[in-house]
């Protein structure tokens, strides 16, 4: 099971909407939107990271915490260009997911396509559903008599 917690995320979002982020003084990286769902024996997590190059994405797993960091850099770096509208967020983005003990953090795979980072996290073998054979009374009695 995936658990995400960031008690200050909504407060940061509201503060940015009210006061803006033009000063560049925010110390907390912006969170990236994500979807997470279970598909068979794996969890799939998708992060929206449009305009981020794959080289600017960093994934780390320590204990049961998965950290995703990315950085979107300005596409226009020429000093002679005068920017008229700049609405796309730039800078560092970060997200942490707490992975339950039922997930196999050693076998996470990642792919990046069309601005979407997709992580596939397998369910640990010990946590997968399995059938248990029930022995009947006759079977047990035959085993004891043998």
Q: How would you explain this protein's 3D organization?
A:
The chain has 146 residues and is α+β, with helices and mostly antiparallel strands. The protein has one domain (2-145): Immunoglobulin-like, CATH 2.60.40.790. It is built from two helices and eight strands, in the order βαβββββββα. The protein has helices at 9-19, 137-145; strands at residues 2-3, 34-39, 42-48, 57-62, 65-72, 91-99, 109-113, 116-122. The chain has a four-stranded antiparallel β-sheet with strand order 1-6-5-4, with no helix packed on it. β2 (34-39) and β3 (42-48) form a beta hairpin. Mean pLDDT is 81; it is low at 22-27.
Task: Label this structure with key terms.
alpha+beta; 146 residues; 34% strand; 2 helices; HSP20-like_chaperone; four-stranded antiparallel sheet; Immunoglobulin-like; 14% helix
Outline the secondary-structure elements.
Blueprint: E1 2-3, H1 9-19, E2 34-39, E3 42-48, E4 57-62, E5 65-72, E6 91-99, E7 109-113, E8 116-122, H2 137-145
Antiparallel strand pairs: 1-6, 2-3, 3-8, 4-5, 5-6, 7-8
């Amino acid at each position: 099971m995936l658990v995400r917690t960031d008690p200050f995320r909504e407060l940061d979002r509201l503060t940015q909407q009210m006061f803006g982020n033009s000063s560049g003084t925010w110390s907390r990286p912006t969170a990236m939107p994500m979807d997470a769902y279970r598909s068979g024996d794996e969890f799939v997590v998708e992060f929206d990271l449009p305009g981020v190059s794959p080289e600017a994405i960093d994934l780390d797993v320590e204990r049961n915490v998965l950290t995703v960091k990315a950085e979107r850099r300005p596409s226009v770096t020429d000093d002679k260009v005068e920017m008229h509208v700049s609405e796309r967020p730039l800078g560092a983005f970060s997200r942490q997911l707490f992975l339950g003990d039922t997930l196999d953090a050693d076998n996470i795979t990642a792919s990046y396509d069309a601005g979407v980072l997709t992580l596939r996290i397998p369910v640990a073998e010990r946590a997968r559903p399995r059938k248990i054979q029930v022995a009947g009374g006759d079977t047990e009695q035959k085993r004891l008599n043998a």
